[in-house]
Specification:
about 90 residues; 2 helices; about 55% helix; 2 strands; DUF3077; flat; DUF3077 domain-containing protein
Length: about 90
Amino acid sequence: MSNGPQAGTGETIGAATFIRSQNPPTELFRIVPGIPCDYALEQASIMLGCVHKLILNGVMDDDGAAVWAAYYLSGFAKALIDDAELGMKQA
């Protein structure tokens, strides 16, 4: 893994959102445009590794808070991946 952002693979465009509010219906968070896609994907991979551990620990320890944390973190990782994909298509 790298030590920081790298150029050359496109950038996030800021279209992907995560964590939807029901009242009023709106997305609470959005990926920031301009993040190098390879860096965004690297960060998403790290987050998904954490999700995997949180789910395993949450299930084994019957820890609902860990499972909910994994749910929200996975939504963040998915938004990063989706936005990086859009950025790479534009590049």
